[in-house]
Task: structure prediction
Amino acid sequence: MNLPQEPNKKKLILIGYPNAGKTTLFNSLCKKRAKIVNYPGSTVSLNVANLDKYTIVDSPGTRSLNPDSPDEEVSVKELENADGIILVLNGTRLLTQLSLTFDLLKKQIPMTIIITRYDQNIKIDLAKLSETLGLNVFYVNAKKPNLTIDDIDKSIKIPNQSLFNSLKEFKNQVLLSLNSEELLDKKEDKNNHQEKINTPKNLFFDLDVIFLNPFFGPIVFIAVMSLFFYSIYTLASPLIDAVDSFFALTGEYFHQIFPQNFLSSLFIDGLWLGIGAVLVFTPQILILFFALGILEQSGYLVRAAMIVDKPLSKIGLNGRSFVPLLSGCACAIPALLATRNITDKKVRLVCQFVIPLMQCSARLPVYGLLLGVLFINQPWMSSFALTLIYLSSFFIAAIVAGITSKVLKINETDNTFALEIPSFKKPDLGLILIQSYKQTLHFIKRAGPIITVLSIFIWITSNYPNPNNSFAMMIGKVLEPIFLPMGIDWRVGVALLLSFIAREVFVSVLAIMFMITNPGGDISNSMISAISSATFENTNNLIFTTPTSIGLIVFFMISLQCMATLATARSEIGNWKIPLLQFVSYVSLAYFLAVLIQQVSRLFI
Amino acid sequence: MIKKLTELNRFEVGILKKINSSEAMLERFTKLGFVENSELQVVSKLPFKGPLTIRIQGSKIAIRYIDAFCIEVELKEDKDNKN
Result:
């Protein structure tokens, strides 16, 4: 998604390092017509000016075209559809900005170069530089520019690609035309535009003294992460109960006011129940997106990435993998896309391989149900168990990552880590709330149609030709031998199979199947009581015994059941071999462990 | 006195003198602002040879211990003493 574009206007974008003077220049040129625009799909805001002939965009500071942060991602995305680039270079730090310049030249987008903050002592031969680069280069005082936008537009040219074959060659050529000795010899630089390092007394206002402290840093990290997971599960719990009761009560009400017929049953016992089973967990998903948004916008995630870099490097990952892995706790798909920020190819692959092991939000309804059954009147135990699930999954992911990195033979040169730590920002809560709301809506929209269709499908196949002898039963019974060793019957088995389409569906299907096959059951009971009292047909043996529930939890923890994830993995990794390997190994391991838990528990009973 | 960046204590200020690393790493360093004769300060050192946080050219940069080991720095106080 990009900013909406006005087709008749030329879109010019200001690009450059942080503190190059882009915004100052932007304000000098067009502040009157400027407004702040929130970039769609993120919490980054841009300054945009809509003039008569042009749209001018002031992009966030960028160090390279390999984005390290949401700000940089926005800059890179915006320049892709710009009509012209205005590269703004900080005249006192030309050397560090050369590779960005080179990368932009390679893009072959029409551009012009403006140098700000020039130091009188460093003489830059503009004409020579211009000739070397094949582009127009100007000195401009960002506060009082001597150029108009029309002038700038006229100076824009398409760079000549064949001038430089490599960054090294580019640098050498540029240094020659800059008279490099003067640039490097700071002893001569009396005005000294180099920023002096602040003396220690400023550090008391610097939160990094705590966050990156050798001792307190890791402690704060553990505290923040615990708070993060705690808020998602415990804060959400009253909301979950509220939604659950709502669906149960309305279901009962509908049964009372609507006549008993095919349509009302399809709607109430099929659709309403199926959808309700999943919607129950949306408060949790909303809180998760919100918490992640705060962590990201405040800048804390970068500090967290630094703290985990050392441990991660032991298993073949690095600090940059932290954000994709954490996003994987929301949904694997954006997490896989986030791995593009990992510059080291082998590390990226390990990270992509391990992301499906991160407990995504689609599993929450399943855990909500199974933990609810396990700890029927002990909600605090459920919270604790959920934390344990997360920690175990990290542990499993670490083992798999370790194995994968040994297989790929990752060594020091494959795994690097160096990045800029942005200053702390006060998170814009309103903006994050809107973003989280949109993301939750997207989650519902994505899962919604699937759940609706499958709920109706399951209701039909479970009721026809006859509730005691339905299609679902026929297929389920055939496959039952696979499910029995796990401790579940064909009904749970069918739910498990369908959950390969979308994990959340497991809950919907269970709800419908057990309500149907317990026709005398009290509808005002919540789903959890109905399922915890479910028995194997014609017996008094409970299906959801403790080992069975634990086995199912372990199954969902490890198994790769999301077709959308497989598809994204295929497009990010570039081939089918690896996603297929992930699918086969994770599903087999999950099944094996679930069966093992069940069989071992039987030895002790 | 020339020291390795990893030998600096927290909050010590130094001047970058030399970087002994691979071409690729050198490139990354330059992009981040690690240029000869820039002033830098160690802001934090994480335990067990974890990454260091360096203040340089107006920004805070995180680099690994192994990479910081390649950077030679002249302590600022020493330089003033020489004068």
